[in-house]
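Title: Prediction job returns without error message
Component: structure pipeline
Severity: low
Priority: P3
Assignee: unassigned

Description:
Job completed but the reporter wants confirmation the result is attached to the right record. Sequence as submitted:
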Amino acid sequence: MAETGQGQPWLTLIGIGDNGLDSLTPPARRLFDQARTVIAPARVLERIECGDREVIDWTFGLQKTIELLLARRGTPVTILATGDPMHFGIGATLMRDLDPSELRVIPSPSAFSLAAARIGWALQNVSQISLHGRSVHGLSADLCTGGRIIALTSGGSTVLEAADILVARGFGASELTVLEHMGSPDERIRRIRADVVGEERPTFADFNTLAIDCVAGPEAALLPAVPGLPDEAFDHDGQMTKRDIRAVTLARLGPVPGALLWDVGAGCGSVGIEWMRAARSTHAIAIEPVQTRRDMIARNAEVLGAPSIEVIAGRAPEALDGLPRPDAVFIGGGISGDGVFEAAWAALKPGGRLVANAVTVESEARVFALQSDHGGELARLQISRAEPVGRYLGWKPSMPVTIWSVAKGLGT
């Protein structure tokens, strides 16, 4: 068995329920009893007796907490975190800066597990998302007929915001279950339709978990997770990768969980947004020089459930300087521009994929030259659509699109 690090863990993360120390297992309680420095949210500290320990009220934000911990690296510290610290919790965040050998993690049941147990949902069939500290519009990506969502929230207002989004998307008949203070003497479970929440604006406890049983109305926008959303789903000015070409393009880009895409010359953001919808925890950076189109990207990202897309103002290649290295790059326009391909290719991670679409003769010539130097696959697509010709239908062809896709070798 491979070793993961040296020495004993100095940082202990203990998952705790809303009923305080009574929620801890005997091994977790022993670790707490041995702790000399405890960091915890004020809500947790109010429910426990800490004695003469050093107690740090976690009120200064996540980044400050990480800085404090790194400054004490090697000195025993115990963090009390709600539920499972590795499920949308501080443990998962700390793993970016610490070696796993430095941490000892003792989880409690997560809010997802507790909620599913109380309302009788099979957790493996539920979308588990976090709206805590994130845009509530992120839930839009999981809305579907018969779908079920359990979401962590930032507070009582999150429920109201989620209800407004459901109503706007045609899911007003969806049943919301708001689970407040699970496990504590203050526990309360409330069920209410999304459209009723929108009308009555009730008050909910700030510490809650939201479960959504999706019910689509006749006017609901039913959008699949697979790439190729209707062009009408996007706010655009005509400069976009159209539906059928977009689906083929994304298949060649190959979105996988956690991967980063550069969408160069993003237009309305259709490729970057569909990349983020296609796999959990993907990221996308949209590079677009035109302000009106950047505004379109922001609006489309909210409506379609990809609000965390990053939008960069500027033109390639200059706008690419300093961006995190991508796992995939899409160049939908501007492949013939000086230095655009070279900058993107240099930044692309080994094993990454680059896809460029060409419509003009000049951009197609550039693609042919690049393919000759770097290899990869070429495909030429022309979509014809049936349109009225008098009393009949006839095929109207669109402009052909040349698609070049190439993978960067692992040794480059």
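Comment from assignee: result matches the submitted record. The chain has three domains: 11-108, 113-213, 231-407.
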